[in-house]
Specification:
The complex is a heterotrimer of chains A (339), B (290) and C (241). Chain A is an all-alpha fold and 339 residues long. Helices cover 72% and strands 1% of the residues of chain A. In chain A, helix 3 packs across helix 13 and helix 5 packs antiparallel against helix 10. The longest helix of chain A is centred in the middle third of the chain and has 27 residues. The C terminus of chain A is likely disordered. Chain C starts with a strand and ends in a 5-residue tail after the last helix. Helices cover 38% and strands 26% of the residues of chain C. Classes of the chains: A mainly alpha (339), B mainly alpha (290), C alpha/beta (241).
Amino acid sequence: MSELLLSGVPRRALVLLAALLAALVAFPLLVNDYFITVLILILYFAYVGQAWNIMMGFAGQLSLGHALYVGLGAYAAAALYVHFGISPWIGLGASIVISAAAGAAIGFLAFRFGVAGVYFAILTIAFGEFARIGFDHWHWVGGSAGFFLPVANYTRNDLLYLRGSPTMFYYLFLGITVAAFVLCHALLRSRAGYYWLAIRESPEAAQALGIDIFRYKMYAVTLSAAMTSLGGVLFAFYYNNLFPEQVFHISRSIELILGPIIGGIGTLFGPIIGAFLLTALAESLHEVMAAFGIDVPGIKQVFYGFCLLLVVMFLPDGVWPPLARRLGLGRAPSKRSEG
Amino acid sequence: MPADIYLNVAVSGLLTGLVYGLMALGLSVIFGVVRVVNFAHGEMMTIAMYLAVALFANYKLDPLVMMVPIAVVLFVLGYLMQRGLISPFINRPEHSQFMLLVAIALIMVNGLLIVFGPDAQSVQTSYSYDSFMVGRLIVDATKVYAGAAAVAVAAALFAFFRFTLIGKAIRACADNYAGALVVGLNVKSLYALTFGIGAACVGAAGAMMAVLVDVTPPLGPAYTLLAFVIVITGGLGSMPGALLGGLLIGITEALGGLFFTPSAKSMFAFGLLVLVLLFRPQGILGKRPS
Amino acid sequence: MAALLAVEGISKSFRGLRAVQDVSFEVPQGEIVALIGPNGAGKTTCFNMIAGVFRPDAGRVTFAGARIDGHRSDQICRAGIGRTFQLVKPFAGLSVMENVMVGALNACAGVREARDRARQVIEQLGLGGKTDLLAASLTLPDRKRLEVARALATGPRLLLLDEVMAGLRPTETDHMVALFRELNATLGLTILLIEHVMRAVMALSGRVIVLHHGQVIASGTPAQVTRDPAVLECYLGEEAV
């Protein structure tokens, strides 16, 4: 198992990774709550970005409605907790099943009927919007007025019901992000990983080599949706409130893909680097503007827009591949780097 | 409910649908020729709507009268966008192009938010509350004027593509890119021109829409989606299809809003989209891709 | 020798254009058969029908006793038919090794096994020094070899080669010919190839089938076929004969 994960990875990369992990683990002990919340945001986007990356970067399917899976996961676990007192650790089972089913349904419809490329993207948007409007009118989970979890007493960490301090959530988010990273690393080296990349590069050639395209695309879509929903569960219990207009809105879908695109689609580190860059820069911008007394809604999004524009125009492979080359990691010139 | 109400609502939807159709026409022209999926389409329309609102608020100029200048401004915007930003992306992978326009859309929407704020703004003209009575039908004057304007602009567009030299040159580019180059057409310029024309359509539609609804920045993405639903339903690359799709969506939305809650009316548009994508992806009037 | 592949009366039209009309032939087990004919004769369309890209409008295709017409191309690959494409389709963003591994995974249970198999096939095709290069950076002759290596890695019983010699120098052609001869002799690999390079056709094939305007106009040994007046006519024109 460790051979599967570690073979072929340059020692340099392993050392850097270990250092990074150590830093991340020690982080909350060194800084105040504000920085912890910023890093939670980064980890959240890194995690869902990584989940989205499986569908786009690996299987080549552009989903612009991924907020659907975040929302489904969030609402499922939250509803089970608020209405039945069920622990989110069990509730997440429901979240995963529901989101996976949604992903599978969309995938099935799309792939069976040959909906691809831009049409597929639009289909995903349509389903996201469907959910937004639907949940707006579903009163069992609060409708448009919102769904609220009882706010926690932050001095006591309740792991069973995920009520606790930001630090507790920090480690939870760190945990799933690291797990996602390891999972994707393992997947890329597995049969599924090779097949997904083949499908992405040339579906016709892939099929001629014995790959059942429909089946593997379905795997990617279902896994991506299931993983994303887990992020949604933590999201719900961390923020304690859910509004369909926020959670399912297409802006969320676009936000969560900015990280992987800026960092580098199809790479392992891309989503993480992208999430870090975007969030760190956005928060800095916010701080700078607050210092000048400017508080304009929309500035952050314009900033994101420009970042995306610049990356798409000048760094189409994302920030990570050239960075990796500088650091002496990954192969040159390769779109498929090991890190 | 008396049948009159259905009829009124349907006609009202039809007229609004004409404006939708014009908006979608712009998208269809852009996609049909330049083959770029303009994800910033609705945002461009919203810019036009805000222009109309601003002109009216500051100078008391009627949006329908300002339709032409606004269309010209949008033409220039579209031309520059294609020439400056989009042109190098023609040969890049599809998702790259898409993300470029997503970025532009993001900047546009939030730019509008910063400049105009989130509150709804509207245009109250002298005829905003007038209505016409045709037999048992009661129709808003604004809708009639807007609908008529939409038909006029669409007709002008059809005439342009049918009868003018430039229009034919553009159609040539759409039909056969390499052939157009070989014949000596300046395809880059024609593409930019086409994008400008598509933008002008959207500009005119925006001016019309400004008298029909209140303007807020989130309308941008909403109209982008609506434009796609219309164009895909009516048939990608088919100009009559865009208009037909607009009418269909206009009526569906209006009746849907009547039977269910108004806030759910866009669900029907999406439902229609899913059905079309699954069962007739080329749209009602579109051609099967070869 | 029993026929490994039997094509009976297949036809295919594209929007009114009859590309292939009532074509029948057999490829006996363990033999090398060439499919030749002028451009537009329908050769690649026949391949595509055998490989599952198109369903024949009429007729049947039988492989190892089972009907395969109408099956998907991945099912046909798993059944034991490998194919190359006339316009090569490498996985551009992947390395040579990764490309071939994708093929090898069809024949192997796991990634490690696939890697070993891929290494072997890469050596056989003379790409040994280039395993870590990106496919996009290869020259055309190397891409052709990669195409063959990938198909070979799937472990086929029948290999369909679509104009793999085009663009190769005579020495490279000879190398490929020698490789196929060896695979045929040692593994009993059955080969059906479309080829324009007569040097390769004459050197490799035991049997040649000639297509013209979608129909079979001649079949036999290479020597027979090259003397057949109908064949000469279709290549050189009526007056030349």
